[in-house]
Design goal:
59% of the residues lie in helices and 3% in strands. The protein is globular and about 65 Å long. It has one domain. It has a two-stranded antiparallel sheet. The chain contains 19 helices and four strands.
Length: 410
């Protein structure tokens, strides 16, 4: 057998990706909560879309994050996850498990990370270790097993964002990249702010090197316009989606739900409105410093659903700082991390309930790329050690919360 044959290599890659999917699916499936999360808003929205409606019918009494407009109930969330569920709901109805869908797409995400690593390095060792880091050494594991409306939105957003990044390092079809980023945005609004990554990484298409032409003459608008057009399709769809529901093209659902006089009285998280710089200290504490909960009885240390520092859940992310900023990939990644982080850190609420800091999933692919850049081709023992520590921490979190129900709420 000729192992240098391109078709053989392609088949080997696909088999490896399939094995990562299978392993992830089995592990995610057996570590899901014993009692499935009941907040399956997207199942009801998919059912509505199948019937040509935007409003939900016969929702459970515990669906509190609904907007009542003219007597009709609407979700506050972007609809892309529900659109993906439409074929499944068409076949199995409201009984289809949103948790199962989350596990499926979460497992696909792990395979996508492997394919991404394949496009970045020839080192099989690094490909495997970086895939293990993402799939089992980050909160992506826990998030995939929950399947609630908030968590499933993260998983679907990551699915499209990873596809956009893979395309950026692959065939580089600019319009398609824009569409994929737009689809991610229609799952989690903040991910649209990762657009600078794609602009920088595609800069050789719209700003080619030339020793004779001036800067203005070098700029080629077509790639930028195609990228903007791809994203713009979903921005316009979101405008239409909101206008048909609330008479405004903007995302007013969140403010309609959270910034009300009643909520401001019962929660300090809303006393400064939906966004405020005063919230940033809470987010930064949860993201960087939040410890686990300490209790007086065995096992003494348990997860806190208030959150957990990223330095504990994924200590290998510390190598992201070794990537520097003087190369195009690192610069592009930092430009994709900082804008959504600033928006998220100024939002009311830190993501409770959660394991880790779930909002950071909006820029996790770029932290992963920075970590990849900061780790050499041949991993040292301490690189592997921190990745293994992250896997153990995430195993601890998943088992304690999902299977043993040992955790503190705050």
């Amino acid at each position: 057998m000729n192992i240098s044959n391109p078709s053989y290599k392609r088949n080997s890659v696909l088999i490896a990706a399939a094995l990562f999917f299978l392993f992830s699916f089995i592990l995610y499936f057996i570590t899901q909560p014993a009692v499935p999360d009941p907040f399956n808003y997207f199942i009801y929205l998919a059912d509505a879309l199948l019937s040509g409606r935007l409003h939900l019918l016969d929702t459970p009494f515990y669906f509190e994050e609904l907007i009542i407009q003219d007597g009709l109930s609407y979700t506050i969330y972007p609809p892309m996850p529900a659109l993906l569920l439409v074929p499944f709901v068409a076949l199995w109805g409201l009984s289809f498990s949103q948790v199962f869908a989350s596990i499926i797409f979460g497992s696909v995400n792990v395979s996508l990370v492997f394919l991404l690593m394949r496009s970045l390095t020839e080192s099989l060792q690094k490909q495997i270790w970086m895939t293990l880091l993402f799939g089992f050494g980050t909160i992506h594991w826990y998030t995939s097993t929950i399947g609630s409306v908030w968590y499933f939105a993260h998983i679907v957003s990551l699915f499209f964002l990873l596809l956009a990044i893979i395309e950026t390092f692959g065939q580089r079809r600019v319009f398609l990249i824009g569409l994929l980023l737009g689809a991610s945005y229609w799952s989690r609004i903040p991910t649209v702010l990762t657009l600078p990554f794609f602009i920088v990484m595609l800069s050789d298409l719209w700003l080619p090197v030339s020793r004779t032409d001036s800067l203005i003459k070098r700029v080629k608008l077509k790639p930028l316009l195609l990228l903007a057009l791809g994203v713009g399709v979903f921005v316009l769809l979101n405008f239409l989606y909101n206008y048909l529901r609330f008479g405004s093209p903007f995302d007013v659902a969140y403010s309609m739900h959270t910034v009300s006089e009643a909520k401001a009285k019962v929660s300090p998280w809303f006393d400064q409105g939906l966004f405020s710089l005063s919230y940033m200290r809470h987010h930064l504490y949860t993201f960087l410093l939040q410890p686990p909960a300490f209790i007086e009885t065995w096992p003494y240390i348990v997860p806190s659903k208030a959150g957990l520092s990223v330095l504990i859940t994924t200590p290998a992310f510390i190598f992201a700082f070794a990537a520097g900023i003087r190369n195009r990939l690192a610069l592009a990644c930092w430009l994709a991390v900082i804008p959504p982080a600033l928006l998220i850190f100024s939002k009311s609420g830190t993501g409770w309930t959660q394991f880790g800091y779930r909002y950071a999933l909006d820029f996790y692919p770029f932290l992963l790329l920075l970590t990849f850049k900061g780790i050499p081709q041949e991993l040292k023992w301490y690189h592997k050690l921190l990745i293994i520590l992250g896997i153990l921490v995430n195993l601890w979190g998943v088992l304690f919360i999902n299977r043993l129900e040992l955790y503190e709420l705050y």
